[in-house]
Design goal:
336 residues, 11 helices, 19% strand
């Protein structure tokens, strides 16, 4: 994605904790010769006329760094500027920049930018602070088309989202939830053909071979929980259940959701499934919107962790029990 934009003359700038080497294997942007110490950044040498590429390892001073990147992106409006948190909760320290500038700058001052926040988010048993990037905060702050919030579950979706962010005329900050485990997940892969399409705000009909007329329960989810649900043995036999991923959480893709729900003439219930506690994640933001789209005869309910003061469990064993319970409850009674 970066290389394609650069060869089209679009500057790309990335900063964050350890962004040069890519701690979590999503990139190796700067290479170092172990004997001479010489550095080599391939994306700076793609060809004549390419856009400028910058990558910086930032200090652990998130408010200062994010404030600088917001200012840079507000001036260099046709550059793709990205700030990456090594863990999503690192954005907590920069909350004032997010609240006062990133989500409100367009409304207060008419100030636009393409700034991208890459925030690792996903429940993987690593404890409260390393699980949640506080998705709920961004959705609470979303209004008047001020930002875009996405949670991509495939490489091709991320590829298309970055290109769309750089190329679309309307400049808005983009917040991307990026589950770390999906960087190495054997099922989170895309083929070359997937890169020839475009970003899909909803990835529908996960149930291969399921007859829409026989589906009574539609599961809607976002992010990594999709892979947990479809890895369950119960999923293979739950022929009366189908599943779709909501990849764009704001602005919520109304037309696509309405079309998806309309595919199932025998639908009895719509269930929002999430890893986060009930008072966090996307549920409380999407619930009123989904109820508007849900037919009166269809029940709508929630499956996830109960409301909590902490974003996640404090140790891996408790996490595994809670995760298994969510999957089991979402798929219960789906046979035949």
């Amino acid at each position: 994605a970066f290389a394609g934009l650069l060869t089209e003359g679009i500057p790309v700038r990335l900063s964050g904790e350890d962004s040069e080497r890519g701690t979590f294997s999503q990139r190796h942007l700067v290479m170092h010769d172990a004997e001479t110490g010489r550095q080599w950044t391939p994306l700076k040498h793609l060809g004549d006329g390419q856009g400028q590429f910058q990558v910086w390892n930032s200090s652990l001073s998130e408010a200062a760094v994010l404030g600088f990147e917001y200012g840079y992106a507000s001036v260099a409006t046709d550059s793709l500027v990205l700030w990456e948190a090594q863990f999503g909760d690192f954005a907590n320290v920069a909350q004032a920049i997010i609240d006062q500038f990133i989500v409100a700058g367009r409304s207060k001052w008419g100030q636009e930018s393409r700034l991208v926040l890459l925030l690792p988010h996903g429940y993987e048993g690593q404890g409260p602070e390393h699980s949640s990037a506080r998705l709920e905060r961004f959705l609470e702050l979303a209004a008047e088309d001020n930002i875009r919030v996405a949670n991509c579950t495939t490489p091709s979706q991320y590829f298309h989202l970055l290109r769309l962010q750089a190329l679309r005329p309307a400049r808005r900050p983009l917040v991307v939830m990026t589950p770390k485990s999906l960087l190495r997940h054997p099922r989170a892969r895309s083929g070359a053909r997937d890169l020839a399409g475009g970003f899909e705000p909803i990835l529908p009909a996960a149930g291969a071979g399921r007859d829409p007329a026989g589906v009574r329960r539609l599961l809607l989810c976002s992010g990594k929980i999709y892979y947990d649900l479809t890895a369950s043995e119960a999923w293979d036999t739950a022929t009366s259940i189908d599943l779709a991923r909501v990849e764009l959480l704001y602005p919520l893709p109304w037309a696509e959701l309405e079309g998806l729900i309309g595919r199932y003439p025998s639908l009895e219930e719509i269930v929002w499934v999430q890893e986060e506690p009930e008072n966090m994640g996307a549920w409380r933001s999407v619930e009123p919107e989904l109820r508007t789209l849900t037919p009166e005869a269809v029940v709508m309910r929630y499956v996830g962790r109960p409301a909590s003061a902490s974003p996640a469990e404090g140790y891996a064993a408790a996490h595994a029990v809670a995760q298994a319970r969510i999957v089991e409850e979402a798929l219960a009674g789906g046979q035949g």
